[in-house]
């Protein structure tokens, strides 16, 4: 029986080439700044994205936390989407560990935050209010790509109002591949960017925060504080470097597979949201649990959610799509 896991692009296993790169990695103690592979990963990604410095961290959650804390101090505020990962899915870390107040605003259907609503949420300089310091965007946002013109407008607004601009770019490269642009065309609008190596890029662990030398200096101190200083981490960084060199262009295959899956489900009569990158959202409603069990019997793993998210990745092959669609068709017949 095949085993196809559509719950997330975090489930990928390191490829043979990646494991080889990890085994060969030159190592040192990164808390002393002496791991050459970590240093190379940080410098490579920072350079490619147009920043002065980068910092390797174990998770995207930590990378975002350090980014927010490097921009905002105790009693400061950041503006963020209600559905954004930093606000909703990171344990409230910015508030708990950073004493940073989130100001969430409802997101738009295209994954953006309306800049009029953002501007209206910026608080005046008044001792009653927290100090609004930062806008945090996410790209891709639930599989949707923010247009470059929108990013330019967000940059203009934040500059005019004296705010920093952070990108949760967990899936930055999905956005870049979809737009057909160099990733730096996206990141040039931001003061800091967090990139996950462990999503579609296929590394087992790791994210990199990029920004100015000053911001990354602060983030390095904060990383130590939250327990994220790692030692011979080059064994992990090597997987990230391998992913950046070998597994970026192939994201287009994930997007094509997701498009085919979305199209097939639509033909079966399922309400499918428009597919842009590697995520397919389908309204399943109350049948979510029954569908999960039915697909599990065919070796297909999904989450049981009324708004079902199906994610394509490195370990979902084009040939798997017809098997998945057969599973959905059989469920619909019963
Ligand atoms: C996965 C993800 C993160 C970080 O997740 P970790 O599991 O902590 O690495 C951050 N933002 C978004 C949008 C994500 O999808």
UniProtKB/TrEMBL annotation:
Pfam families: Beta_elim_lyase (PF01212). Gene3D superfamilies: Aspartate Aminotransferase, domain 1, Type I PLP-dependent aspartate aminotransferase-like (Major domain). One of its GO terms (cellular component) is cytosol. Its cofactor is pyridoxal 5'-phosphate. SUPFAM superfamilies: PLP-dependent transferases. InterPro entries: ArAA_b-elim_lyase/Thr_aldolase, Low_specificity_L-TA-like, PyrdxlP-dep_Trfase, PyrdxlP-dep_Trfase_major, PyrdxlP-dep_Trfase_small. The lineage of its organism: Bacteria, Pseudomonadati, Pseudomonadota, Gammaproteobacteria, Pseudomonadales. It comes from Pseudomonas panipatensis. GO terms for biological process: glycine biosynthetic process; L-threonine catabolic process. Belongs to the threonine aldolase family. Residues 5-283 form the Aromatic amino acid beta-eliminating lyase/threonine aldolase domain. Homotetramer. The keyword Lyase applies. This is L-threonine aldolase.
